[in-house]
Every structure is written in C-alpha cells, then in structure tokens.
Amino acid sequence: MRITVFGATGGTGRQLVEQAVAAGHEVTAVVRDPGRLPIRHAQLEVATADVTDAAQLRPLVAGADAAVSGLGSPTNKGAGIASTGTRAILRALEAEGVERFVAVSAAPVGDQPQDESALFRATMLPMVRRAFKNVYADLAVMENEIRGSRLGWTIVRPPQLTDEPGTGSWQLREGTAVPHRHRITRADLAGAVLAMAQDGSTARKIYGVAN
C-alpha cells in the first residue's frame, strides 16, 4: 500500500512510520520539521508541509491508498491542531479521491461502556477530562469533521499511551472504550491503526482500543 502519515514526528506517528515501512508499504511522512523524524528508509519520503493548508497536502496524498493521522496536542496550550489540521487533510483527501482515512482520537472523548467500573466513571474519568479539557474538545471537533466527510473513515480512541515495548496484540470495542483497560503502548496503537487502514470492514466506524 501507499500510505500518507500525518503527525509523523509524534510518539504514535513515529511508530506508524516505522511499522508501515517495515511491513513493506510505501510511506509519505508529513512533518513540519524533518529533523524531528530521524527515520530513513528506501520506501519512505519525508515531506515538509503546513498540515493546515489543504493545497500543500494534496500532492502528498495523491495516489495514496490510505492516510493515517496521529495529529493532536499532548497539552491544553497546543490544542487546536487536531481539528484544524484534520479539516485540511479531509479536503485534500476528498480532492484527490483518496477514500481511506484512519485517525487517532482519545478514549475520554467518547462514551464509556456501561460495564466499566463505577469508580472509574465517577472519579478518574471526570478528573482526566478536566485536566485535558482543551485537548479533548479539540479532538471532539476533529471527530465531528471526520464523521461529516464522504470518506471511508475510521476513528480510533485509545486510553493512556505508554512507550513500553509493543505486545503485538490489542483489544477493540466498536462504539465505546474497552472496559477495564486503561493503557496501550504506542507501538500497539500504531499496529491497530495500520491494520484498520487495510480493513475496509472498519470504515465509518469508531473503535476503542487498548492492551
């Protein structure tokens, strides 16, 4: 496959790039600062662009089989990039006729399963949502933009991300977070995203994912 990766210099984005080229895909990694992506590979093109400018993004998605995005800010101060960047990405994908798009959001943005513990829903979740209020508001706007598009999109909502080694496995639940599972490695998240990018049955659906 030919895959365009957005947010390629973030923790999840780097995993997406590394795993995609290791699997034999042709990858275009879209970055603001190429120096922040030290990965080099014969099947990797590192392209510098303003992710909020659809005109700059169009040639970077032209001919792609899929695009995947790890765009987002880890802090409230930087919130806004997920929604504004994704808006431009969607315009570029639609203009170039690229159908498949998988985007990473976050578990606190969506509904929690009824079989999740009452303690988590009553205490931990509200605390996390307050602490990262702007981040999750940005991701919620991003999700609305994606759901309103004509693409074969998939939204993936992970819980807390870790830099531990990947396990090579993960759990999915359609529509809500995975109950009682509140962590996932970035490596496994990237693996799940790439698997979904190649699986048309996940199109126009939202999934919780966790280890």
From TrEMBL:
SUPFAM superfamilies: NAD(P)-binding Rossmann-fold domains. Residues 7-199 form the NAD(P)-binding domain. It holds the Pfam family NAD_binding_10. GO terms for molecular function: biliverdin reductase [NAD(P)H] activity; riboflavin reductase (NADPH) activity. This is NAD(P)-binding domain-containing protein. It comes from Streptomyces cacaoi. The lineage of its organism: Bacteria, Bacillati, Actinomycetota, Actinomycetes, Kitasatosporales.
